[in-house]
TrEMBL record, chains A, B:
Described purpose of this protein according to its UniProt entry: May function as somatic storage protein during early seedling development.
Keyword Signal: yes
Domain of life: Eukaryota
Family: Belongs to the APS1/VSP family.
Stored Pfam families: Acid_phosphat_B (PF03767)
CDD domains to which the protein is assigned, alphabetical: HAD_VSP (cd07535)
Keyword Nucleus: no
Protein name from the UniProt record: Acid phosphatase
GO molecular function, one term: acid phosphatase activity
PANTHER family given in the database record: ACID PHOSPHATASE-LIKE PROTEIN
Leader sequence segment: 1-20
Stored InterPro entries: Acid_phosphat_B-like, Acid_phosphatase_pln, APS1/VSP, HAD-like_sf, HAD_sf
């Protein structure tokens, strides 16, 4: 990773405001202090490390649901998020969530009535839109509904492999799989085709946003749909989603599994 | 960080089982493949990077509440957790949670009735027991109640500075601060002294486990206490804790803030 000078500036302007002991101080400035005795390359690598840690903290805070709603990845973390999303970190994070979910799924003695359910979100949970986001700054650009819809309509999103493995395990254990997505009803056909082409099969139900659900916060829409499932008798044991709004609200599952996603936030 | 040979073994034995494509394969083994053309030092650094990423994933999974209850830090992540807890990563994670919580606290227009409340857990939220855990493997040793009690009775736990800042901000904004801890009633006096010596002041209530609460899961005990607060008329706006059992259950706060803690898990 290279850090252009702009980023040095952004690093300080972004973090200095929040943490007073990080504020540059001409009397005792870390950067000035080392300017002569140490080579510039060391300064860069220290700042790179600093930026990496701060952006990792930002990602952690998101995964722990500590952040207020956010519109885009912070400018100074755009490169970090890109590296994370295209590197091993994202894959390993997906793998451990899939593994933990699978172990929980196996640990439950299901009833014979076929009413034990596992809910999956679709985007960034079963299907990856990375080809789209790679062309749009990995969350650094403001989300564009029209462009994203055009991408969805291509029906070429990729399977998230660790999720596909969990999906198969959950199906084979006898759970009823319910897909609950923020995608619109008008995208049903392309979504079904995309899911099947990516290797997903035999879901019990695919719930998309109807015209009645338009404008509802995701957390409300999804809670309502889970409440309907419970009224139909389903026991919601597991729920996998990349947004906290997939998992929180009411009628929440016994265990929920938060997949990583530092690219966008849905309330 | 140095990785002794034992860790190489542990790395493979720990992760290989879960992720089949990571299983060593004599025909196509990454390590064997590079044994001649590349120096050993590169192998070590690749494995170090691998271990770091896997252990970061384990920490992330914990912070996102994806892990099943665990007893100790996984052996292969003991060094990683120690480095995290004693390095900048932990501090930055604490700082961003404090900052986000403070922004939320400020964003609320409090009522005049003095019933807007903010709950803080104590251990690893307001007070740090790092001197104790540094002598006990940073979560690598099985938790020892007697030894930990002896440490608590010294009353020398340290303030977590970013939490102290949030605490002051929340107090000054006019919230009623309620401390809700898993510590026992018999530790009230030493806890009060420790908190005051660490700079905490003017809490409205300090709730410790009474004999009635003995043996209750933390998530139950804390939910019951929050429910009592609500019955007394309090509106629980914020809740800061390092365990998900501080934050989940019933009578949950409007926003909750999960402080990092990869050293221990309380159900």
């Amino acid at each position: 990773m290279t850090i252009p000078l702009l980023n040095l500036f952004l690093l300080f302007s972004f973090f200095a405001l929040s943490f007073s002991h990080e504020t540059p101080n001409p009397q005792n400035n870390h950067h000035n202090h080392h300017a002569f005795p140490r080579p510039l390359i060391i300064e860069y690598s220290e700042l790179e490390e600093e930026l990496k840690l701060r952006c990792t903290s930002w990602r952690f805070a998101g995964e722990a649901n500590n952040l207020s709603p956010w519109i885009t990845v912070p400018k100074e973390c755009a490169e970090h998020v890109k590296e994370y999303m295209t590197g091993k970190g994202y894959i390993y994070d997906l793998e451990i969530v899939s593994k933990e979910a699978g172990e929980f799924a196996k640990s439950i003695q299901l009833k014979d009535d076929g009413l034990d359910a596992w809910i999956f979100d679709i985007d960034e949970t079963l299907l990856s839109n990375l080809p789209y986001y790679s062309a749009h700054g990995y969350g650094f650009e403001v989300f564009d509904h029209e462009k994203f819809d055009a991408w969805v309509e291509k029906g070429v999103a990729l399977a998230i492999e660790p999720s596909l493995k969990l999906y198969e395990d959950v199906l084979n254990l006898g759970y009823k799989v319910i897909l609950l997505t923020g995608r619109k009803e008008s995208h049903r056909a392309v979504t079904v085709d995309n899911l099947i082409n990516a290797g997903f099969r035999d879901w019990h139900q695919l719930i998309l946003r109807s015209s009645d659900d338009k404008g509802k916060l995701a957390v409300i829409y999804k809670s309502e749909k889970r409440s309907e499932m419970e009224k139909e008798g389903y026991r919601i044991l597991g729920n996998s989603g990349d947004q906290w709004s997939d998992l929180l609200g009411s009628s929440i599952s016994v265990r929920s599994f938060k997949l990583p996603n530092p690219m966008y936030y849905i309330a």
